[in-house]
Amino acid sequence: MTTTPVFIDKLKAFFIEIGDMSYFSGRYLREVFTPPFEFKELLRQCYNMGNRSLLLVGVTGFILGLVFTLQSRPTLMEFGAESWMPSMVSISIVREIGPVITALICAGRIGSGIGAELGSMRVTEQIDAMEVSGTNPFKYLVVTRITAATLMLPLLVIFGDAIAMVGSALVENLKGGVSFQLYFNKVFDALAFSDVIPATVKSFFFGYAIGLVGCYKGYHCKKGTVGVGEASNSAVVFTSMLLFVIDFIAVFVSDIFFEI
Amino acid sequence: MNTSVDIKTVLELKDLKKSFGDNHVLKGFNLKLYEGENLVVMGKSGSGKSVMIKCLVGLMQADGGSIQIKDQNIVEIGQKELDLLRTEIGFLFQGSALYDSMTVRENLEFPLRRHKEKLNMQESTEELVIEALENVGLVDAIDLMPAELSGGMKRRVALARALILKPKIILYDEPTTGLDPITAKEIIQLMRSIQKKYGTSSLIITHDVDCARVISNRIILLIDGINYAEGTYAELVANEDPKVKAFFKQ
Per the confidence metrics, is the pTM higher than 0.90? Predict the structure, then answer.
């Protein structure tokens, strides 16, 4: 047997999955605006995804700012450009590194969590039980989770960026004797709306992708505990790839509108 | 059970067909459930019992045939009508299917959220939850999480949840599977007492012969995707057909 048919089968399966996911996404967009609305569950999911990710995003952001500044310092010093440090760090973090790293962390924490939770609900017939009780499980489980992820990710990105800046300022303060006030004055001088707005807008899309893929994988989980593991794992892998694709598109589009 | 014309049919399956690829699970299955009746559908594992019951509540799409519940063909009605019709059907899942992220109280409150007003229930949510838990003798477990309950307790809570909207029809999918004989007997007694108290019609899917013997008014044997044999427990035990005989020998 040649390897071509296997490759074609896999490619076919991939495109079928993309098609299914697009349909799933379309269903979300239809149902998110139609009553009844599950506000209580939405708030619970926002709390689970937002509040419970703060520590992880905060620690990662702090270390990111710290390491980024430590690593860049010697190179900038070589050119006598240490004073550019706040601008360089803030623009890199706000435009690109902050949103991407936060989204990748959330893909691991939130995406896999959604995949595993919905997957286990599927295999233990809890989703069927919901449907039989006359509740729309898609609206209760999927719409709330995707909406919560879409709303919470930009907030987590802003929080992560802010903490990363604190980490960077700390290094500058300890190594270069730059005061916090001076550091943040330079940061705000360097940042423009054209840095913040595209980054925030793409964070909404990152959040949407994390929620969508996690829910899709969990909701269509195959039978058994192996299926739950696979749903959780593939949610992270697929989301991570999707995040880079979205990032590429976002940077491309931003370039058209804001001339980066 | 007297099945003459004066007894109302609450549920009817006609020529139900369902296949998975080349595997033809149901090849024209027929069933009538009468008001107040306990009808047991028996068959070996993999014979299509659970598929049949899932088609019945719209969890699976049948390939052919009609499903009439209270004079409505569920294949033809819209989602809203189906949701409303589902409030008249209680469903006890094989693995209980309690929502693990919710307490027993929240599990029971869940079906009430959307349908309490629609069904014009006068009692408060709290009263309805307590009443349902009293029926299964588990009022003390009201604030426990499903993970803190034993298998038998989970099944009883699931039964309470199935009863909370006071349905006219209850579907039991393997109600005694995975339980020890004593707990299984308790569940069967509970099913009988609920049927007596609320006058519900029950469709019970099982391969447990003891369960069928105790609870059934009528039994249908689902073999090879069709109703292979039908009758009371005594009639089927006396049946000389080798497939029927083999079944009751177990």
Answer: no
